[in-house]
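User: Sequence in, structure out. Go.
Assistant: Echoing your sequence, followed by the structure tokens.
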Amino acid sequence: GQVTALVGQAEAATQLGSAVLQHLDEQLASSRRLLEQVLRQGQAIRARRVDEVLTIMAEIQGEMERRVRMDRDRTTILTHAGARLGIPAHQVTLEVMSGLLSAAEAPQARGRSAELRGLLAEIAREHTVNRTLMKQELAFLDHLTRLMGGGEETGGYRPPGEARGAFSAAPLSPRPSALRALDLQA
């Protein structure tokens, strides 16, 4: 009886440990792909390669969709661990869960978790840089479109037929530009 219960607990711990380590490995692989994409996106923004920026944005969106599935898997793992620990899933931390993992699995999980936190912090930093670069580029584009639209600034562009000559009675009021900038968030 007691030996069977201990064997069952050991098997459950091994299954949980394997699931946790596999999930962390998937998260790490995804985070590495995401970091690579965000870095490439920054290079494309700096080089003003619009088509490449848009392509990478689609890749990032695809990776984010895969991460939604991984988050569901994470919730399942936390729910199982919480049930074994007698606490709600939202209270399960890696430290609390470590008591359910084998002596070899617990430090591996902690190491992978630390690596994951570092990658996520780096992704967040690079994403912030990219957003700032995009805002700068869009502000520059906005400035150019205002110049091209005429307005109060001198030397502005007016479409054919709207040129103001020396004898023109055309009003000097600002006109909205026909050009539009697309507000893209990285």
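User: And one key feature?
Assistant: The CA atoms of residues 168 and 174 lie 16 Å apart.
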